[in-house]
Every structure is written in C-alpha cells, then in structure tokens.
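Hello again,

I reread your note about wanting to compare the complex against the isolated chains. To keep things tidy I'm splitting this into two emails, and this first one only covers the full assembly. Below are the input lines as submitted, including protein chains and any nucleic acid or small-molecule components. They are followed by the predicted structure of everything together. The single-chain runs will come separately.
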Amino acid sequence: MHFQSLAVILSLGLVNYAACIDYDGWLNIKIEHSLNCGTEKYCPRGNIALKSIRAGAAVVDQIHFNKGHIQALKNLAEIDSFYTIRTLVTSAENSKGTEFFSSVKAKAFLGNGLSDVINAWVLPNGAVIAVSFQVTNASQPLSLESGTQKINSNFYLRYVEQAPVPDTATYIQKLEREREAREKGDLKDNKSFLAKYWMYIVPIAIFVMISGASNPEPAAQGAR
Amino acid sequence: MGLLSIYFKPNFLGLLKCLNKLNWFIVFFSLINLSVCIYEDQIGKFDWRQTYVGRIKFSQFDTVSTAKKIIVATEENVLAALNLKTGQVVWRHVFESASTGNIQLLQITEKVVTVSGSNPYLVRGWNSATGVLQFEWSLTLQNDEQADFSEWWVQNDMLVHMLPVFGSHIEVTMYNLATGQNRGSTTKLPAVWANDGCIVTAPYYTCIHGPMGNQQLFSLDVTSNTMHLISQPLSEYVTLSSYDSNLRPLDGNGIIPAFTVDDRKIIVIKNSRFELLKTDVVDPSASVAIVDIANGPVVLQTWIDDTQGFSMRANSVSTGAEVSELRTSDRELRLPDPEVSAAVCTKSAREQLVCRILLTGGDDSVHLMQQGGRILWSREEALANVVAAEFVDLPVSDLDAAIESEFDQKEGSIWAAFSRRLQTQFQQLQTLVHSIQSGEVLEDDPPSALVRDYFGLHKIIVLVTEVGKIFGMDNLSGSILWQHYESQLDTEHAVLYTRRAARHPPHDAYLTVVGKHQETGNGLIISLNPITGSLIGERVLQLDVQLLQVAVLHQADNEKLHALILLDKDENVQILPQSAAPLVENMFMYVAERNTARVQGYALIYNGQTVEALRTWLVQLGGSADAGHRIVAVAGKAAGERVHSPGRVLADRSVLYKYVNPNLVLFLTEGPDPLHKDVVVATCVDAASGAIVAAQAHRRARALPHALHTEHYLAYLYYNDKQRRNEIATLELYEGKQRWSGAGAAFTSLWAERAPGVERLAYILPAAPAAAAATATERSLTDKHVLLALTSGAIIEVPWAYLEGRRGGGEEGAMLPAPAPEIMLAPEARLNYNRTLARPRQLYTAPAGLESTSLVLATGLDLFYTRVAPSKTFDLLKDDFDYYLITIVLAALIVATYSTKYFASRKMLKLAWK
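Full-complex prediction:
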C-alpha cells in the first residue's frame, strides 16, 4: 500500500457551533473498504484526523485507487451494487473505537470521478453517532490514462444542535410591552377609517341601494 | 368561519378591552375552534365508547343488594360492578397501573372490601350499589422482603393477614375491617413445614412437606385460638410415584376449604380432618369449584373435551352423585381454558335449579352461563389490551364490482362492449326489481351487507390484542364481526399489514399479522380475510427462525397481493409468497436495537434466484453501544401517504418548498450525560442511505415514547427535567425557495448532496400525554391536526398551525395570534367531550373516503372511535341541513314566480284597457 499524503484542511463556521459542544478532544476516523483487499474482508482506504472536535479542522489522508480498485468498483457497478465503507472512530474517551458502515452506489461513485462527501455527526458530549458517505456530483469523469486515481473527499463535521426551548421570555416581554402601551394610551389603530368600520358601512350602503332601487318605480308610474 | 372571525376581530377587541390579553386569547382560540365541538344531539352520533375492565382476577356475585351485580377485580387493577342481566359496567374504579394498584383481595359482605397495593397496602370499603368509597386505611408491613407472600382474607368482620416465613413460622395478624384496629399482637405459629408450594384455603394453610416418597400433607387453621395441626401421609390420596408436588386451590369462591392434589384428587377439610371426595378431577386442565346449591354443595368442573368441546359437570360433595341440570357440553362455544370465576345457584319457586356461572376463558373473554349451558352475555375483555389496529376498506357491492369490471376491460370490439353494457344494465334492472319486490324484507336485515358506502366512512377495524385474539370490528357501530384466537401468538411488537385491499373483486382482501411464537420466539404469521375473519393464504404459518424485521413490498404481484419480506436473525431474507421475489427492487430495510440505539440498514437485492440482504449502513445513535442510550420512539411515514402540495406559500407570495423524503425516519433516543443528567436526542435518518438529515439534542430531559411524522412535519414529546413539565418539540424540513428536482421527479435518497433547512420550535404542553397521532385524509388536501390523548382521559385536537416550527411565516401567519409558548388545550377541542377514557394507550387514524374526514380510534382500557374534520366538513352538507325548508322555499318561489307572472299579465292587460 502506498500512502500519499493529501491534506485537506477545512475550516468551518466554528463560532456558530462551538457552543454546542461540551467536550473537546481529538478524533481519529479510520476508513476501510473491501475493494482489492485480497484475503481480508476490509483493507484501509485512508484516515481522517482531527486535533480538536470543537475546531473541526480535519486532515484527510487517503490512498489513490489503482487499476485493481477501479476494476473491482466496475464489477460492483455492473450488478448495480453498493460500495461499502467501514469506518472506525477513536477518540480520547473511546480508545476501543466505534464501528460505522456506509455505502454508496458503485456506479454513481465511478461516474463522478470518485468524489464523495463524508459527514460525521457529533453529539454534544463529543461522541460520533454516524459517519456517512455520499457521492457528490463532480461531473469530472474518471481519467483512466494515469495509472492511479485520486479520491476527492470533502469532510464535514456536523454537530447535533441544541434544541430550542419554549420561548417564554419574549412572550412575557411582549405581553408586558402591550400592557405598557395600553396603560400609556390606547393602542394606536393605524388602520384607515374604511378598514376599521367597513362592517357598519357596508350594510348601510346595501340598505341605501335597496331602498334607492325600489324608489324609482312609483316615480316612473307617476311620469306615465 | 375561521376567516370571518378574523374580520370581526376588532369587534371583539372593543368588547373585551377590559379583559386582559390572556382572556382575549382564549376567546379568540375558542372562535377558531368553533367547528370542533359538537351539539348535544350529536352525542354518540359519530362516535362510540366501549368500556372494559380487563381479565378477571377475582369475582363475586353481589346477592346482598337488590340490584343484582357481579363485582369483579381484574388484572388491569380495575374494580367494577357488572350488571347481571346485561353484562354492562355499572360502576368502575381504575386503580394505578403499577404494582401500587394491584388488587390482592376482593371480599363482598354488605360492603365490597378490597386490599390493593404492595406494601404499603390499602384496605378500602366500597358501597356495592354505587361504588362510593366508604372507608380506607393503610397498612405497612415491617418485613418488606417477605411481604410479597402475604395472604389476605376476611373472617367475621376481621381482616386476616397471614405472612408465612418459609421453613420457620407463620405470622397471623387480625385487623378490624372498618377501622384497621389491631385486635392484639401478631400471633406467631411455628410451622417448619411451610414452603413456597403452600396454598391458602381460608382459614386453612395447607402444605406438602417431607422427604421424597414419604411426604406429608399438613394443614393448619391459622385463625383458631387452639393450634390444631392436621397431618396425613400424602400416599393415602395419590400414588407417590407419579407425584410432582402440586397443590392447587379451587377456583371460584370456596364455601368450604378444599383443594386439588396433583390435579387429580379433590380434598376438603371438614371437622379438622382431610376428606377425599368421591369425585375425581375429570381432566388435568379442568377448572374445579365448589358451589352451594339448594341441596348441599356440589363440585363444579369445566374443561375442554377433545370430542365434546366445552363441557361442564357437577357432582354432589357428600354423595358424589351427578347433578343432571348442570351437565353441559357445547361444541359451538369456543371458550379456550375455561375457568369458573364465580357461581351462584338458587332454587326457584317451582323447585327448579337456577344457576349463574361466570366463566373466564384463556382468551380473556367473560361469559355468564345459566344452567343448561345457555350463555346470557359475553364480554371480550381482551380488547382492554389492544396492541395493534388497522382500518380496512370494505369491498364494493357486487353491482359496483360488475360496473367496475365493465370499464376495466379495455380490449374488445364495439359490439362486445355494447353487449356487455346491455348485459350489465339488464342485471341492474333485475336487482332493482328484486329489491322492490323484497323491499320490506331487506330493510329488516341487520347491516349484514358489508359493502363500501358512498363516502367511504364504513370500514372494518382489525384489532390485535395482547392475549393473541384478533377481532374484526364494525367502525360505525363498534360491534364485533368476527374473532380469531391464536393461543400461540405472542403479540409483543406485533405488526399488521393490509396486503391486499378489498377493491380487487375476484380476490379477497388479505391481512397479515406478524408476531412471535409464545414459547420459541420464532416468527408466527397469521393471514386472514379482514372482512370475514377466515384464514386465507398462508393461514397460520410458524417459522423456524426469529425475525428481525418485516416489511411489505410496495409492488403488488399479478394477484394484486403485496408480498411480505421477512428478515431473520441470520440476515437471510424470505419472501412470502416466494414467487414475488423478482419484484424486489430498490428495497431497503432498517433494524433498530432498542437498548443499544444501534441502527443498521439493509439493501435487498434480487440476484436472479433469491433475495439477499446487504448491510449497507450502520449508525450508533448513542455514540457507542455501551453509552447507555436507548431508542424510545421511532416514527416513519405512513405507507402510501400522499403529499398534496409540494410547497408552502409565504406571506410575500413566494413559495417555500417542503423537503418530503419518504425514507425519512425519526429516532428519539435518551441516555445519560455526564454534564446534563439525561439528554434526549432526536435524529432524522434517511433509512435508505443511512445519512443523517437533521438532529437535535435536549439537555436535562427525558423522552416520552410519542413521536409523529407526516409530510415534512415531525413532532415528539419529552419531559423537561429542569422545568418539570412536558414539552413538545416540532421540526419542519424545507428544501428552500427553490426546488431541488423538477416537479414530478422521483425522490432519491442516494443522491442527497444538499441538506434541508430545519425550522424548529418547542412548546409547553400543560398536560401529561399518553399518545399522539396526526390526522390522515385521503389526499392530504385537508389541514393536519395533531391528536393528543392525555392521561386525564381526554383526546385533544390541536391544529398544526399552533405547533408549527415555522411560526408566523405562512400565508395564514398574519391571522394567527402571537406564538404563545404554551399550547392551549381548549375544552371544545376535546374529541371525546365528557366521555373520559381510562388509560388511553394509543391513537390510530385512517383516512375516510371523504376528503375532509379522518377516522380516529383510541385504544387503552376503553375503546373510543370518532371522526374528525380538521378543515371542517367542506365536502359534506351540514348534519342539521334542513332539506324540508329548502324544498318548501324552492317550491314557494316557483309558485310565486308563476303566480306573479299571471298577476303581472293581468295587470298589464288592465293597464292597456285604461
């Protein structure tokens, strides 16, 4: 296996998310797949290392696919099967590691030049609950001229946000404000005269119209 | 009405200026919900309630008071009085469902006395006629570990409490029944022979003790002042070679102390000695009771005979002679494992024996039988524990079916079609003539014609109960149409699937219950016709493997049957029927482990011969398996749910598109947290790809097992530990102002590269919820309302508009009052008005044929059915629509038109002559 260092450092909107995480520490995600592995079921595809969960910056380090890998993927694509990736997440608190699986359609992965998005979801206590792989629309076909092919992975650390709480404070404030406004003077009704009293005007208008319509008859009779 | 009330708002503001804002809000709310409440004459018109008590534990005939009743105490911790003539509940008290409500003793003297709870015990006395509590005192035992072996009975107005300490002694304490005063101290009787196989036949405590082969039968009257121990070698009664140490007290309410040994011999204790009865136990499974009839006590036995069916026999205790009046055998009566709960016999004026025998079956049914075997009434107490329910459409009538099949046939020449047309019209004419001829006869018929009505409101509710009995119920009347008892069925987590609707005429409707086998835990599949209740197709199929997950194939085979896909423990896939395997395409399944919060996804792939399950994803919703998180609720979308509108119009006339992912599943997990005690995490997982779409966490909260999920709405309930209140969190998922894919394009989970926007809010729920559901309508055109069943026994209808995560953003946003953080549970929004439901457990909704209407069934100890119209009945004339008035007005108008025409012409004529 020839590893070639490839560093993709992503900076996220750290300020927004920092509050969600109660815990900080390092995180290591080992990526394995079952392409061209020989006798073993899974063999390494790469590694993602994070120095700090709170910072979210990751170093993604993955192998290049050789012809053997591409052929194995093509075999999977022929039967429209899945390319399954196994990940093992280790952290300072969880040295044993937690296993996750995710799959993409082999056909889609090949068709988009081996581009994928890796999402890792983190609970507020720093535990990873899922690592999912999804194919992105890269629209750059596989170049088979060169012997090896680079995997284009984008890694995102997603935080499980804190849920909102019932907003009692602003509601009470609003009630207070309204009460104050009422105490100061009546609520300013900025609607127009017509909008305010249309329900009185309309019946009167109708009444006038009806009486107006019935009046001309005797007049017409008189003219005759 | 809703719209109109908005325009009248200033009026009300003016009126209610003196009132504070909150009061105004309540008034406003009540205006909007005007349509929810019903008129007095509509009570019971669209709804029904059935009250149940549960499986009978103790029962006794109340012969003291004038109105004859049966007082029952049940496994569901209910004390109730049943009318002797009709079997209806006269009064009912529902105790706590936990062990604090366990009823230990029921005794009827002039009062009904119960002992309930488990250390501390509560002794209560009730008025038997009204059920009013008359006295209550509590009792706490010092010896808490032994307290579970306590025995209670009433003797001479004293409550006897007996506590055996095995291998050592018996403690007997007597209390004044009404006051709880202790007569003296506790008596300790030495009894080294006491063990856990002992039984109480008041006032005797009977045990078998001794070395194997030389066992002795001991019996002691624990209430007598002089201790007199009766002992006899057991070999006098049974041959010890076959003996397996089994004493059994008699069923019913024993009038003389008696028990059975080895399920074969009956022994009574008379004059301080054992006496072997001449009558033997007929069948090892027989229920034996001693009943007092006019000429001395008799031994009453009931059992199920292989050839005779249900059988009953009575023999005199003293002579052993059979009482012929009580001999019964009935092959028609299906009463598995009959048990005599209570019996009473009297002599009528003409020296005839009149008996009332209360029988409880293994299927939890209760029957009152009179002498000669006639059943006076039956109650299906299994319905107090419904685990799954499904609404099933009725088939169309033969005539409609003929018309449908006529239009179905596309091929054929014009002449063939014409002749077919004539033929069907002739048939229609024939049936018309026939119905006119026998018009009166047909009207007298009960509503046996189970055919679909015009509005699709008439359906069959199939209910699966905990005991393994499946019922088919008419939704309009609530009457039971058919029942099927499967004693082997363990219905824990059982699922129900309608695999073929009734609208494919040559084929019957097809419904499948998937449960577990009682003993082995293997899959057990029952297929039946939901209209008739007869077994069809696979009938009762016992699998030889435990099941992980079950699903129904979305594509029907050429018999219009949806195949059942079973994923077993070894991740093998079975398709029922096997012939449907080639139809498996783009099929995904997930398996969630409740205790570890581990969720796995499988893709099912057909490889030409068999279907294989390929594990494609795995997520650990708790972080890791040992983090202590567990799944509390899972909410997916209902199968075949429609979404009427793909977007939502905002106040500025722009459209916000909904994120409608059919594969989305909401998982609600809870677990410990080092910082915040308990956390609740709600995770929306795409079950096809395993990707997480949205997630949020609540700190210091505990999850409640109620979540709902329709269209792009998600809601779930949790208990906020910090504020000590129940809250409801809502999520709405939106694609944004632009559509991700073109209109009509199929949604795919495997190409999800964009994340939807999530609108979220939380509201305070000022009540304790017991169940939650969203209304469902045929085309989802109608508004969605959330139905909440509360532990107080109410079902409240809350419009989604009051819960939505995106507040005030909609077109209707301007109309709504400012978002109050607390949901108003208006009394008018209560679906079951004053019919309180005891222990509601689950709500089921189903669309009716009418778009405006959704059918609702609430299960629990009671069953309640009603229908709701979230957007009012816009497609139906009002219930009190005055047909006469409009006819009269129309007729009068026509008459007036012609008469004025006539008079006008006459007037014109007169004018012309002037």
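For quick reference: Residues 14-159 of chain A form one domain.

B.
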